[in-house]
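Illustration 12: Dihydroorotate dehydrogenase.
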Amino acid sequence: MLKTVFANHEFENPFLNASGVHCMTTEELDELDHSSSGALITKSCTPLPRLGNPEPRYINLPTGSINSMGLPNKGFDYYLEYVTNTPYTKPCFFSISGMNTDENLDMLRRLAASSFNGITELNLSCPNVTGKTQLAYDFEQTERLLNQVFDSYQKPLGVKLPPYFDFAHFDEMAKILNQFPLTYVNAINSVGNGLVIDLDSEKVVIKPKDGFGGLGGPMIKATALANVRAFATRLKDDIQIIGTGGIATGQDAFEHLLCGATLLQVGTQLHKEGPAIFDRLTRELEAIMKQKGYATIDEFRGKVKSFS
Ligand code: RRO
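Figure caption equivalent — predicted structure in token form:
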């Protein structure tokens, strides 16, 4: 019932982890492979390992989460070794987030030369590295990077975007993305640079960047749905969409699909529940579809109604 075709791969269901959650180590990646997720993605990596920001750097909140992890990862080689040598049973995404153009191009060259036959996600939206702006908020730099990427890289590749909040920005980014043979666009990364304060201590809740960090979970669902919908209605048909942001229930998943997503990534709620969440999400989404009389996702994907 939930079978999905994406980038010429067959997926048992549309769910996978959002990069960054439960995917830093091979043990965690194995747990995702053994879960009922439809796919898995590795933690965004850099050419060399990084420890990331000082702790506390991730806090769960009643309405979601705030994080400023600072791109901790075990380095490109660790994840390449995993995705090329593990007999995992489902489609695999490889996330890269270089600190500059050269690092991104270098990692793509190495992926191109490897036996990796999954899908690459280029993260243009890390909000938490001190002193770095989110690349995808700089339209010119994004266009320049994508030109360089597609000059040489030929395997399937998508980009992870930050949220946009203005129709002019949806239009401008879509115009740039439509120039390239992208496999997909993933909307959205965390909502950057929120601030959460603890009443008792009158103190921010995470240590890096004086408490500023990326927001996730239910509090960002409406922003995520808006971005999925905005890109679904602006991108050419052969660019598919991954919906990420605020998916904690089958209903949230259904709404993302109605807005036009094909795959669905789960971050904050996976962090709270662990990989068993994929049993619940698939069950809840199927129950909603049965109740509404849908036999396949294709019957309702992208068909959210507006007032006429
Ligand atoms: O590691 C992080 O701080 C991080 C990254 Br790379 C990202 O893309 N999104 C996020 O919320 N945190």
